[in-house]
Amino acid sequence: MKLHCGNLSSSSRRVTLVVKHLGIDLEMIPVDLSKDRTQLTALNPNSKIPVLQDGDFVLWESHAIAEYLCAPTPGQTLLPVEPRARGDVQRWLFWSSAHFSIPLGGLAFEKLWKKYITGGAPDPARIAEHERTFGTLAKVLDGHLADRAWVAGKALTLADFSIAATLMYAPKLELSLEPYANLMALLGRVHELPAWKLTEPTW
Q1: Kind of pairing, strands 2-5 and 27-30?
Q2: What is the pTM of this model?
Q3: 168, 7 in Cβ contact below 8 A?
Q4: CA geometry: angle at 106 spanning 43 and 42, to 5°?
Q5: Which one, of 202, 198, 203, lies nearest residue 19 by Cα?
Q6: What is the DSSP string of 59-99?
Q7: 97, 122, 166, 186: least CB-packed within 10 angstroms?
Q8: Which residues of the chain have pLDDT under 70?
């Protein structure tokens, strides 16, 4: 298998965390999104990473790839087999994609990438809007974590990796997580894992 990914991509990190945690043997192919994307677009018409190649099967979307890698791995517990437990994990994966990652991606664009992509300056109104949306969603997640150590079930799952990877830019975005003590505690647990340390980006 080949994984086309980038170590500055939070979406890629969702997958590389799984690869390292489960010890999956595959070839990682670095992709520089600032360069020509012709080859990438041939694999993924959305021209985004990560992309997994398994023989003649090509799969994109980070959560789909993460689940695909878990399925054949004996003894893995990141993606439960029992339907309700699996559904709970998937609920938070979908929530992460559809809701939580949106304001964080918007903040990263305005504060980190916009000057390189468009040459424009950060838009204070958009930043404020994204911060408000993030606060609303972070409060939901923090409340959910009030009586539990992990996002879904009683052990580490794909949901925890997804949330942690999505928040990997919080320090660079000067986004305070102090109001969300339960979320910070979750991140602390994930950040201590060998897989997290093995996937630290090279800035």
Answers
A1: parallel
A2: 0.95
A3: no
A4: 10
A5: 198
A6: EESHHHHHHHHHTTSTT--SS-SSHHHHHHHHHHHHHIIII
A7: 122
A8: none
Burial, 162: exposed, middle or buried (Cβ in 10 Å; 0-12, 13-18, 19+)? buried
* Residue corresponding to tokens 């087999």: 81
Chain segment 141-184, per-residue pLDDT in tens = 999 999 999 999 999 999 999 999 999 999 999 999 999 999 99
- CB within 8 A of 80, min separation 6: which ones? 86, 88, 89, 153, 157
For 176, the token pair is 């305070």
- The DSSP output letter for 45 is T
* C-alpha pair distances (Å), 19 with each of 76, 113, 122, 153: 12, 27, 35, 21
CB 201 within 8 A of CB 13: yes
Cross-strand bridge partners of residue 39:
none
Tokens of 8: 């500055």
* Maximum alpha-carbon separation in the chain: 49
The packing angle between helices 83-95 and 158-166, to 10°, is 10
DSSP string across 95-142:
HIIIIIHHHHHHHHIIIIIHHHHT-PPP-HHHHHHHHHHHHHHHHHHH
Place of tokens 């009030």: 146
Residue 146 in tokens:
């009030």
Instruction: Identify the bridge partners of residue 54 per DSSP, sorted by sequence position.
Output: 57
Q: Is the bond preceding residue 50 a cis peptide, omega within 30 degrees?
A: yes
